[in-house]
Amino acid sequence: MQSIDPLTMELMDRKNNMKAFERGVKAMMDVGIKVKVDLIIGLPGDTPESVRRGMKYLSDTGLYSSMQVFNLAILPGTAFRQEATMHKLDYQSRPPYYVIKTPTIDLSTMYQLMEEAEEIFDTEFDAVPPPVEEGVRKEDILDLKSHISNLEFQMTFDFDAASLPSLPPATERCGAFELILRAADFRKHRDTACGLIRQLLDDNPHSTLRIVLEPTGNPKHLTMSVVQAIRGACLKEPSYLDRFYSMQLGRPKGAKHIVVRLPWIERDRAGLDWVDDLAQFASLVWTGDGVPDEETLDDELEAHEFVMA
Question: Does domain 6-120 bear CATH number 3.40.50.1700?
Answer without folding.
Answer: no
